[in-house]
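Field reference: sequence -> structure
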Amino acid sequence: MEEFLHDIALHIEGYYQSLVDITPKLLLAVVVVLISWFIASRVRAFADSRLKSRMHDPLLATFIANLIKAALIVVGFLFMFRVIGLTGVAQSVLAGAGISAFIIGFALKDIGENFLAGILLAFKRPFSVGDIIESNAVKGKVVALNLRDTQIKSDSKNIYIPNALLIKNTLINFNSEG
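Structure field:
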């Protein structure tokens, strides 16, 4: 019984030493994550203000700024794994993220399609807010363009058309060319 208790005490002491050894790395990892989050937030705010001043589409500017922030946070987390010494975990997380994105992409195909169509509409700009357009037998004045849908006001009704339908089908802009 004495030998059993001695073995337990040795194991507990080993766990304690391991915890003491890794504590500075864990604290440094937390500091790295906080610093990367702070830097990403500052870069996002800077990019958002600069892009909004240079672009005529605030929705696209905010989207690009958020994308920059997300990329910087991911880099911060990967650096955190490297500081702790878990580079294999970082590689596994990246591989898992790729596979997950593939599966989620199939599951949310329609939402993703509308989202990408919204980005294309923001870049291509076939119409602007205030233009009168017609698509899918719906005619009205464009009230708002979001990443997922476009809001049109027709006969005092708000109509929301998914952006993918605007990309796929014929679109008539009655305000273009005067």
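Note: The mean pLDDT is 84.
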